[in-house]
Amino acid sequence: MLSTSLRKTIILPIMFLMLFTIPLTISCAERTDTKSINSGEIVNLPEPALDSDYSIEQALQSRRSVRRYSDKPVDIQTVSQILWSAQGITHEQRGYKTAPSAGAIFPLEIYAAVGNVEGLSAGLYHYISDNHHLVKIHDQDIRTDLSAAALRQTSVRDGAFVVIIAAIYERTTGRYGERGIKYVHMEVGHVGQNIHLQAKSLGLGTVVIGAFIDEEMKRVLNLPEDQIPLYLMPLGHK
């Protein structure tokens, strides 16, 4: 048998090494932003505003679904504000976001199909909430294709840009099982309402669209297999 002094000589350094090599478990949000599908152009977005003269009560009272938009462009600051309202980071250390998420897992991915935005060229972009930036996936204006996949709803074609919300169900079902599907659907509703209220405060119109042909929408967006489109939200001036 090893002597007491020899055991200490062997075991204590091993314990010290383990302390610094085994990842610590901390109570914070799981940072689940995926890397963008393609390593395209990176667009750093303007910082979002954290206050305004338009109250939350006013936005709740006057929120409506708007399906017709003018051809007036929106600016990149507006896009930044809308995307932040959807999934922006609100606590850097813990990774909390603007919408609640079961277990702080955040299974949603946010995209913007841009067509009529000052300071942002047409194309499909992936919103990365960490560092609040966009990564361009491709250069085509896909609003007309999105509209066709959405049963030819003209609001999708006519919005200055369209927010697409997709879900990676496995992030949530991996922890909560089949019930996680319900949690994902709750969460996309939270995000949709955030966008609605933020749009209202900015003087924009929007509408939540869930009526589309799934396979056609996947084809147009060309997202990874594990990302399932759930919502389209076109936005524009009324």
Give a verbal description of the structure:
This protein has 238 residues and is α+β, with helices and mostly antiparallel strands. It has a single domain (33-237), classed as NADH Oxidase (3-Layer(aba) Sandwich). The chain has helices at residues 4-21, 56-62, 76-87, 143-149, 154-158, 169-176, 179-201, 214-221, and strands at 42-44, 74-75, 89-91, 96-97, 108-114, 117-118, 123-128, 133-138, 161-167, 204-206, 228-237. The protein has a 7-stranded antiparallel sheet, with helices on both faces. Strands 2-6 form a two-stranded parallel ribbon. Helix 3 (76-87) runs antiparallel to helix 7 (179-201) and helix 6 (169-176) packs across helix 7 (179-201).
Question: Topology, pairings included?
Answer:
Layout: H1 4-21, E1 42-44, H2 56-62, E2 74-75, H3 76-87, E3 89-91, E4 96-97, E5 108-114, E6 117-118, E7 123-128, E8 133-138, H4 143-149, H5 154-158, E9 161-167, H6 169-176, H7 179-201, E10 204-206, H8 214-221, E11 228-237
Parallel strand pairs: 2-6
Antiparallel strand pairs: 1-8, 3-4, 5-7, 5-9, 7-8, 9-11, 10-11
Helix pairs in contact: 2-7, 3-7, 6-7
